[in-house]
């Protein structure tokens, strides 16, 4: 989600999409890369990451985690949806829109900050407790679900903003991560009450698939989470609820549309790359499958296809410059990417596209991110890491960073390095029980070893209408959305 105080009204990521109308790591899921690094080097083994790669990821994580401490309100714990990146002081930004999803990413980033020693433990725990207490006892909600955007100081929902099912799920993933990591009685009590309060069947609105949200004036949004996307965390959290669960039958109620692009076949709607990343930030799908797919392997293939798509566009993309997902662009906001071609893809690059796929395609994603930092860091890198998007040939560099785009990069970088978020989140019994109820079991092979490496594949120049129908969101002035 993103809120701007200096631009005209914009559409949301979800309404924009409507209007447009790795494998190596799987075997290492429980073996931290630091441990591999500490082992004596021998010619018989090839390390996944070099010292230089690890140093870069450390810098990226530290910068990203800083956002979630400096740009969180000290009284409410809410995290700003966006903030200026080129700042020397780290003062609280002038933007005022908080994002419930960015706050969820922030709770997880605070766990990483503590693990990595970026901030004092007492300060971090105080922020976590402040955040959980405010959202439990003072933050407006409907049946436990939260509004998409709110005033960062008061928690009041912004005008014409929906109660969001998916963004509430992202927040709750952060809540459960904090509960498992700190193992603190107060944090545990607050987090458990937040999760147990959610009335999941209410958001089904009489169906088997979730509504995308609810508006006080008009009720439930008609569009539903009914085909494969970032929705897996939403369904699994609901199925695993100890107080208000939904039936595991809903897991098979959403469709899994087949996508073919060149030699790549996988499950995907006509959606940006982030849909293959968000649920994977917390739920550990590596080495597992259900009756339909191995979703970790599916995201590997989706990332390979996306890189090949970029290289085939003939718009300046190379092995050292690729990646487009829903983000800011020079003229506002775009739910863009592919395959197939969606939106006004013009040669801009969006760093979180590769950062969010770090565990899926480590070599390719680390390579492009390091190249972007080396080649364009003077303008594209700031206090919190990469700006949200940029186009060097047009001399355009987004002045802002977006909380959820920073968040997915931070979490996936840590998962690549140590599997920390996966291992911590999956200590919660509810996600484990939900995956079992949905039929997940061990799958030894996580990807097709004969699958081709990403190479340029020509794409049509005519954008298609994405298949995901995002909420027909009525936005308040100057509001820009991101999931």
From TrEMBL:
Residues 224-429 form the Glycoamylase-like domain. It holds the Pfam family Glycoamylase. InterPro entries: Glycoamylase-like_cons_dom (IPR019282). Coiled coil: none annotated. Residues 457-470 have a biased composition (Polar residues). Residues 443-483 are annotated as: Disordered. This is Glycoamylase-like domain-containing protein. The lineage of its organism: Bacteria, Pseudomonadati, Acidobacteriota, Terriglobia, Terriglobales.
């Amino acid at each position: 989600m993103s809120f701007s105080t200096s631009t005209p009204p914009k559409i949301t990521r979800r309404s924009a999409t409507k209007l447009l109308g790795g494998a190596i790591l799987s075997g290492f899921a429980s073996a931290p890369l630091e441990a591999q690094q500490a082992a004596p080097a021998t010619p018989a083994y090839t390390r996944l990451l070099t010292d230089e790669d690890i140093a870069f990821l450390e810098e990226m994580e530290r910068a990203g985690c800083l956002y979630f401490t400096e740009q969180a309100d000290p009284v409410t714990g809410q995290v700003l949806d966006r903030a200026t990146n080129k700042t020397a002081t780290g003062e609280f930004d002038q933007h005022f829109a908080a994002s419930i999803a960015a706050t969820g990413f922030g709770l997880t980033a605070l766990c990483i900050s503590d693990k990595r020693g970026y901030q004092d433990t007492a300060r971090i725990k105080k922020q976590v407790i402040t955040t959980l207490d405010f959202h439990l006892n003072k933050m407006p909600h409907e049946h436990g679900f939260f509004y998409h955007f709110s005033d960062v100081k008061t928690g009041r929902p912004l005008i014409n903003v929906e109660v969001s099912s998916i963004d509430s799920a992202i927040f709750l993933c952060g809540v459960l991560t904090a509960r498992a990591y700190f193992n603190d009685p107060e944090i545990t009590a607050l987090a458990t009450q937040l999760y147990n309060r959610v009335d999941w069947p209410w958001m089904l609105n009489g169906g088997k698939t979730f509504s995308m949200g609810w508006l006080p004036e008009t009720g439930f949004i008609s569009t539903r989470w009914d085909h494969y996307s970032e929705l897996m965390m939403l369904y699994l959290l609901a199925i695993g609820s100890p107080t208000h669960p939904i039936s595991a039958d809903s897991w098979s109620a959403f469709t899994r549309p087949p996508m073919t692009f060149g030699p790549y076949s996988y499950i995907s709607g006509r959606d940006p790359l982030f849909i293959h990343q968000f649920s994977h930030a917390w739920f550990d799908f590596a080495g597992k499958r259900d009756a339909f797919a191995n979703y970790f392997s599916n995201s590997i293939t989706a990332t390979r296809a996306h890189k090949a798509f970029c290289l085939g566009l003939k718009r300046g993309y190379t092995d050292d410059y690729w990646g487009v997902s829903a983000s800011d662009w020079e003229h506002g906001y775009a739910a863009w990417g592919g395959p197939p071609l969606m939106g006004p893809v013009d040669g801009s690059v969006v760093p979180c596209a590769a950062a969010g796929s770090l565990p899926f395609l480590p070599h390719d994603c680390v390579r492009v991110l390091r190249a972007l930092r080396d080649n364009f860091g003077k303008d594209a890198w700031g206090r919190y890491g990469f700006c949200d998007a940029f186009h060097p040939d047009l001399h355009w560099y987004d002045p802002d960073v977006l909380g959820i785009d920073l968040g997915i990069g931070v979490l996936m970088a840590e998962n690549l390095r140590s599997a920390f978020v996966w291992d911590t989140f999956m200590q919660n019994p509810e996600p484990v029980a939900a995956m079992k109820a949905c039929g997940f079991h061990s799958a030894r092979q996580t990807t097709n070893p004969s699958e081709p490496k990403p190479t340029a594949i020509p794409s049509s120049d005519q954008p298609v209408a994405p298949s995901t129908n995002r909420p027909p969101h009525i936005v308040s002035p100057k509001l820009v959305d991101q999931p």
